[in-house]
Amino acid sequence: MKNKKNYLTPGPRTKCIHTSGPEDPWRALTPPLYQTSTFTFPDFDQVDRVLKGEEEGFVYGRMGNPTTERFETLVSELEGGEKTRAFASGMGAISAILIHLTKSRPEMAFPKVLYGGTRAFIEKYLIPQGCLIHWFDPREEGWGEELSRRLSPKTAAVFAETPSNPVMTVIDLGRLSGIAKSAGVPLVVDNTFATPILQKPLALGADIVVHSATKYLGGHGDLLGGTVTGNASLMERLSFEEGSYLGATLSPFHSWLLLRGMKTLPLRMEAHCRGAMNIAEFLSHHPMVKSVHYPGLPGDPGHKVAALQMKGFGGMLSFSLGDDQKARKVASRLEFFKIAVSLGDPESLIEHPASLSHRQMSPEGRMALGIDPGFLRVSVGLEDPEDLILDLKRALEA
Ligand SMILES: Cc1ncc(COP(=O)(O)O)c(C=O)c1O
């Protein structure tokens, strides 16, 4: 908090409310929204000073904006990183950092369990551009040794997402960062599901953290956004190169909405975690449910690692009803869970990957990821958990 009296080390709730940025001349309680595409100068001497970095200032909205910078500073403070660059969506952020890293080294390593959009970017952009992909499967014994063997000075980065979308695989970030470090390869972590409130990848050894800010950071289902956080020199290069010239700039209004949404991020995460735990427990005892994937359940394969590297188990879970007709019917009968992709909103959302997010994949491809025909993914919202459980019970038993 660079403009605050530094006699306190604020906690995440305080940081999210008392954000850092330029003093507003009118001392407005809420951060001002600089809804402008460009910035003016009284003369060219000031242009020179701003462009030489001798004076703080903004030139053009694609390069930076004070409202967006306030949001970026907050994300850096929460993640414990030096600098953040905001983007127009999570994919804007992920594509920019992957393009940046693969400019100098032609190989990358990815886990098989990964958000479908990231996988599509690999298949539709990185591979056609000549990037060699090393896939590893963190669900298999010996994945660490296998990954170590594949890394070399040609590897641009190891990428990971934990818990992963939609199968909720937990990856041991301490172990993964050790493997990446001993090969001299940076580790990029997608922290969308956990948020910096529940998990801090940089403290666990990662070099770069990305987010779909569309999800929990925004938290109200009313915007798209993304972030990349890392060391200052890398982030300055990313901002100046892909940040400015690929054009996926976060709008000032969405930055302002993000600042508003993030005031309640720590409180919302507590409620999402509590609701998801209650629902996971209910589902795990229901006779119609074949399997439940939630790292908060003691029997979950990711539980031990999640309990060590996360402060809470998050608001996402998935479960299977065995066959696809049952899954589609049960989801359609629900009242409070809306059928929709996306996640992290106050409203509970449910989706059937075989019908929606992973529809383009073959059934065999889905099965290899752990998505069987009856698999449903749930984003537990902020409603009363008892209402959500009654809704699920009614839909399952109708
Ligand atoms: C884990 C994860 N990363 C990245 C993204 C992409 O974010 P966006 O939709 O904001 O581009 C998503 C979207 O669902 C996601 O779930």
UniProtKB/TrEMBL annotation:
Pfam family of the protein (one): Cys_Met_Meta_PP
Protein name: Cystathionine gamma-synthase
Annotated PROSITE patterns: CYS_MET_METAB_PP (PS00868)
Keywords of the record: Pyridoxal phosphate
Record InterPro entries: Cys/Met-Metab_PyrdxlP-dep_enz, Cys_met_metab_PP, PyrdxlP-dep_Trfase, PyrdxlP-dep_Trfase_major, PyrdxlP-dep_Trfase_small
GO cellular component, one term: cytoplasm
Listed cofactors: pyridoxal 5'-phosphate
PANTHER family attached to this UniProt entry: CYSTATHIONINE GAMMA-LYASE-RELATED, TRANS-SULFURATION ENZYME FAMILY MEMBER
MF (Gene Ontology): cystathionine gamma-lyase activity; pyridoxal phosphate binding
Sequence similarity: Belongs to the trans-sulfuration enzymes family.
PTM annotation (N6-(pyridoxal phosphate)lysine): residues: K215
Record-linked CDD domains: CGS_like
GO terms under biological process: cysteine biosynthetic process via cystathionine; methionine biosynthetic process; transsulfuration
Keyword Signal: no
Segments for region (Disordered): 1-22
